[in-house]
Design brief:
elongated, 29 helices, alpha+beta, 53% helix
């Protein structure tokens, strides 16, 4: 021992202050004696125990010399030295490092994934010049806020406005492409000449349309997509001037539009063919009151705001209403930013997910901070020695923060890889859930976000342990030798409360989304979607000049041939509206009432033009009267079937059977022969004021001749049984037998159509649920870790209690209650937070309140039970404490 004391005095002589040297020698003597005692307890003999103590002493000398040298090193070298030391420290504690990095990678990776989605969908500018000046244009009507525009109105808007540098319209359609291999259906868009120049889209070959090609009588020309050019023309450079046979008519190719061009508005998607709008041979095109699915896009003049454009267009539409009161009364212009139109309803879902994943990151920070707090208690001797050797408290804080930032950086790097993989998988599984999905990826903004989040996360979870470490009293720590570290665990307890509160908020949010989606799945759509197949069917181009009677005969043959296929129970062609798909409207008034002064004052109903077997195919309930029969044809009295909403609205407290309605487009009077149940036309999740619109069914064989010819094809609804693939093969084979130029396209089951309508909600629910489960796991691990740490700190106290007669079940209750109390505090705060925050989700919910008491109570109880279960393991460990061993604990 004299040798040890001499060495200590010589070691202490390194300090300039004699008083500090004596204090240091006394501290080190106690510290080394404690180490010798520990070594003897491990089974070493006295010589080996002293030798190991001297090794410790040499390490301390190196530490002191290192501190003295670092005081004169440049800052960059000091930081690099801190990083190397932090890396060595973390490498020595592999278990802790792996757990901390994995936890951080999950939190940072989730934040990166959601931010990359928000960045691609909401933040990235549209891929057009000056995208902030682009807006969509619609007609606002009494029945529709974003209705289609009549072409004559558009021409007047284009001429009379003062705030737009250019305007254009487009109208979605399709063609049967023949003459180049097997006949197929191609997606088409009728556009005005300004359409592509307005968007700044240049063809990779050729040119866009000219104004002269928009005039009546101009030769048919077309632009084709790069995909069609490569698929049908082998990317030949001499494609310009070649013909493309569409619906039996030859179009001259004048240009090729680059791949990837898409404008995700309600009327526009990526197309195969583009043609001038005046080449659309619809006789209603120049009728001012006919919208016909035409929607517009405009580019504002530099410096013009949307508010100014709306005021300008309000004046234009008022003038038109004065000039054309019959057609334009009540018509105004609806103007929205193009990005807002493209993003659609997914914005609130993304913002909720971003907030949720931010909460997950908070829990991650709290969890890792709790781990660091426990680890800093175990390292209290090390930090006390550093301070005693002359390190400033700021120096110790910097070293601890360096370790935490290094953890954050490594976790961020791994999280970035997880985010890239996770988003790729999610978007592949749910491709239609997120608009602009092709723009989601890892770019500079996402990398910068991940870097900043990693740094801030490292500072955030490392700050509390660093401050706690710097405030430790080195004299007390060295006298105790690090044994029986302070029982104060207030910070860890606060961390647990925060984790529980945030986890409950996430659980309740996810629970509300799950209940909402379950309610939607249980909504009766008004029809039976099971085993119902829909597809489009275009008649051969040779039928374009056929007589109405011949076309009706062809439609009857199609129904008969499809209905006779093995496995097909019923088939019906349909025009107009399709549930969950296309919609069409019919203006009318009741027979016996005066015709309204203008069309915008007329009643309207969703219009289904169907065959007699349609009701059997769709499984729609017949509530009164009858449905159509084969006898309801072009030679019989005109009839109609209405839904129950139509009956309640227009024939209240009356029997609608036998009543007559007058159609505006033909002036024909139709007798109501039946009432059917209401069908959800626009989706399961729309509000009643929109979904409960009157619906009208008309027999397709009674349509006027100008409707039947020329044919544009139809949709087919088909109920099948057995194997779908076998049925589809039979349908295609039968179709080829009827005509090799007759095209089937857009095959989809009604179940998948309903599923697709809920894609955005399902995407949000899956991610929010995953974040909530992750938060629950992290919170459970957090409370387990804290209770286990507390039990370890109170081992001696527990031993004394048991030595004085405390029963094991008393110890169990003591430990479990300590954890349950923390969980209860967190749950109480979480309920209050959820009551405030879930109100922001009101628009995302269906059939469930944002403050639903059942969801709140069930998930709060579940979280409490999970927390108590997490406390049971350390509690059982405490029950098995041997009082004799505990009294000698360290």
């Amino acid at each position: 021992m004299r040798r040890l004391r001499a060495l200590l005095l010589r070691f202490a002589g390194l300090f300039r202050n004699p008083q500090q040297s004596r204090e240091f020698a006394e501290e080190m003597e106690g510290h080394l004696l404690a180490h010798i005692e520990d070594n003897l307890r491990l089974g070493m003999n006295a010589g080996e125990a002293r030798r190991q103590a001297l090794i410790k002493l040499g390490g301390m000398q190196q530490v002191k010399e290192s501190y003295q040298q670092r005081g004169s090193l440049p800052l960059l070298e000091t930081v690099w030295s801190d990083i190397r030391f932090a890396a060595r420290t973390l490498r020595k504690n592999v278990g802790f490092t792996v757990v901390a990095v994995a936890t951080l990678a999950l939190g940072i990776g989730g934040n990166t994934a959601i931010f990359s989605t928000v960045n691609g969908v909401l933040l990235n500018p549209l891929p057009f010049p000056d995208p902030d000046r682009l807006v969509t244009l619609h007609e606002s009507k009494p029945n529709f806020e974003q209705g289609s525009i009549s072409y004559p109105n558009f021409l007047d808007w284009q001429r009379d406005n003062r705030t737009f540098s250019s305007m254009a319209v487009s109208r979605r359609d399709s063609f049967s492409l023949t003459g180049r291999g097997e006949a197929e259906q191609v997606k088409a868009e009728f556009v005005t000449a300004d359409f592509f120049p307005l968007l700044g889209v240049n063809p990779i070959l050729g040119r866009t349309f000219t104004e002269s090609e928009e005039q009546p009588g101009a030769g048919p020309v077309a632009l084709i997509s790069e995909g069609l050019w490569r698929r049908k023309f082998g990317a030949a450079a001499d494609v310009l001037g070649k013909s493309l046979t569409l619906d039996g008519k030859d179009f001259t190719i004048v240009g090729v539009i680059p791949a990837g061009f898409r404008l995700l508005t309600p009327s526009f998607q990526e197309q195969d063919v583009y043609a001038p709008v005046r080449q659309w041979t619809n006789p209603l095109l120049m009728k001012r009151s006919a919208g016909l699915g035409i929607h517009g896009i405009g580019r504002l003049k530099p410096g013009v705001t949307i508010a100014q454009a709306r005021a300008d267009m309000a004046e234009v539409t008022r003038n038109l209403a004065t000039a054309f009161p019959d057609a334009d009364h009540g018509i105004s212009a609806s103007i929205l930013p193009l990005k807002e139109q493209m993003v659609g309803d997914v914005r609130p879902f993304l913002l909720v997910l971003l907030a949720a994943v931010g909460f997950v990151l908070l829990i991650v920070c709290v969890n890792v901070a709790s781990l660091l707090m426990a680890r800093s208690s175990a390292r209290s001797r090390e930090f006390a020695v550093r301070i005693a050797l002359g390190a400033s408290r700021q120096r110790v804080v910097r070293q601890v923060l360096t370790e935490s930032v290094l953890l954050g950086g490594v976790g961020g790097g791994i999280g970035l890889l997880l985010a890239a993989w996770g988003m790729h998988t999610a978007l592949r599984l749910l491709p239609d859930a997120v608009p602009r999905a092709e723009e989601i990826g890892i770019d500079f903004r996402v990398l910068a976000f991940t870097l900043i989040v990693s740094l801030l996360t490292g500072i955030l979870f490392g700050l509390a342990p660093a401050l706690k470490t710097s405030q430790a009293d080195p004299h007390t720590a060295l006298k105790d030798g690090g044994r029986g570290a302070s029982g104060k665990h207030r910070a860890q307890s606060i961390f647990v409360v925060v984790e529980m509160a945030v986890a409950l908020v996430l659980l309740i949010g996810a629970g509300l989304m799950v209940r909402s989606l379950m309610r939607l799945w249980n909504v009766d759509p008004g029809f039976n979607p099971r085993n119902v197949l829909s597809f489009g069917l275009n008649l051969p181009p040779s039928m374009m000049d056929a007589s109405p009677d011949r076309i009706r005969a062809a439609f009857r043959e199609i129904d008969d041939r499809l209905g006779s296929i093995p496995g097909v129970k019923a088939a019906s062609q349909t025009w107009g509206a399709i549930p969950m798909g296309a919609d069409d409207e019919q203006l009318f008034w009741l027979d016996g009432q005066a015709k309204p002064a203008n069309e915008n004052d007329m009643s309207w109903a969703v219009d289904y033009i169907v065959q007699p077997s349609y009701l059997k195919v769709m499984g729609i309930a017949l509530e009164r009267g009858r449905f159509f029969t084969p006898q309801d044809d072009e030679h019989s009295p005109l009839v109609a079937v209405i839904d129950d909403v139509f009956a309640r609205k227009h024939f209240p407290n009356q029997d609608p059977i036998g009543k007559r309605i007058v159609l505006n487009n033909t002036g024909a009077k139709l007798e109501v022969v039946g009432v059917v149940g209401h069908v959800k036309q626009w989706g399961l999740d729309l509000d009643d004021t929109h979904s409960l619109r009157a619906q009208l069914y008309l027999p397709c064989m009674q349509m006027p001749d100008n409707f039947v010819a020329p044919p544009s094809g139809s949709a087919v609804m088909l109920r099948y049984e057995g194997n779908l693939s076998a049925v589809l093969d039979s349908i295609r084979r039968t179709n080829r037998q009827m005509s090799s130029a007759q095209v089937i396209y857009g095959v989809q089951t009604m179940e998948s159509l309903i599923s697709d309508s809920l894609a955005a909600r399902r995407f949000a629910m899956i991610l929010l649920g995953a974040f909530a489960v992750l938060a629950l796991v992290l919170a459970s691990v957090g409370i387990y870790g804290v209770i286990a740490y507390i039990v370890g700190q109170r081992t001696q106290e527990i031993g004394i209690r048991m030595a004085l007669g405390a029963q094991r079940n008393h110890v169990l209750r003591l430990v479990v209650w300590q954890g349950a109390r923390l969980a209860l505090m967190g749950v109480s705060i979480g309920i209050a937070g959820a009551l405030a925050l879930t109100r922001l989700m009101t628009k995302l919910l269906y059939g469930v309140s944002a403050t639903d008491p059942l969801t709140f109570a069930a998930l709060a109880l579940m979280l409490m039970l999970v927390a108590i279960a997490a406390c049971c393991l350390p509690a059982r460990r405490a029950m098995r404490v041997d009082p004799v061993v505990a009294l000698r604990y360290e």
